[in-house]
Amino acid sequence: MKKVEHKECLSALLPVRDTLDVIGGKWKFLILISLWEGNHRFREIERSIPKISSKVLAKELKDMEEHHLITRTVKDEYPVQIEYSATEYSKTLRRVITELRDWGVNHRKEIFGQ
Amino acid sequence: MKKVEHKECLSALLPVRDTLDVIGGKWKFLILISLWEGNHRFREIERSIPKISSKVLAKELKDMEEHHLITRTVKDEYPVQIEYSATEYSKTLRRVITELRDWGVNHRKEIFGQ
């Protein structure tokens, strides 16, 4: 197997970690799916994801907002409505997710046979 | 944003999890890099990865062997030598790693500006 340059390898580490931090946890990927599906309100999102707690969902949403993956909008209505939406930017994750999915599908075949 | 089919989304979950289980941990990606770089013996690999313990390295190598990512060869010499190598199959991860890296690089720009 061809040797890979040490520096080249290590320089990949940090951004790979960054990406895994953003999507690697237990919930963020599920929350993104829920938003992509069209859920916008906190209770809707919560109901769509089995076993997630309100506290965890609130924390994850905040985190994802900081990472520009979602927006939080306060609607000027009574009672006040808060809506969450996936950003256009969040769509850039789809290619990553597709690669992860495809490799996982193939890996099951590799490990368990077809 | 276009709605994504619920079933389509959820069917992606399992293989994405599988992939993250294989490469998402703290060490496996570093071990793969070390092997791709041409390290083969336990002590070489251990030395190349700061802060990894022998116990953890042994466990990870076993796990990676079960996932067909590396091979473990016992050389018929005296004293007995054991060599670890990355498999050809492990190279299929490079595309995934490239996607993760590229997204991470771009994400730093998105979050911190250029």
What does this structure look like?
Two copies of one chain form a homodimer. Chain A has 114 residues and is mostly helical. In chain A, 59% of the residues lie in helices and 11% in strands. In chain A, a hairpin with a 5-residue loop joins strand 1 (70-75) and strand 2 (81-86). Chain A is globular, with a radius of gyration of 18 Å. Chains A and B meet through helix 1, helix 2 and helix 5 of A and helix 1, helix 2 and helix 5 of B.
Summarize the entry for a quick read.
Two copies of one chain form a homodimer. Helix content of chain A is 59%, strand content 11%.
Name the features.
globular, 5 helices, two-stranded antiparallel ribbon, 114 residues, mainly alpha, homodimer, 2 strands
Percent in strands of chain A: 5-15%
Shape of chain A: globular
Give me the number of helical elements of chain A.
5
Q: Largest beta sheet of chain A, briefly?
A: 2 strands, antiparallel
Question: How do the SSEs of chain A run, as a string of H and E?
Answer: HHHHEEH
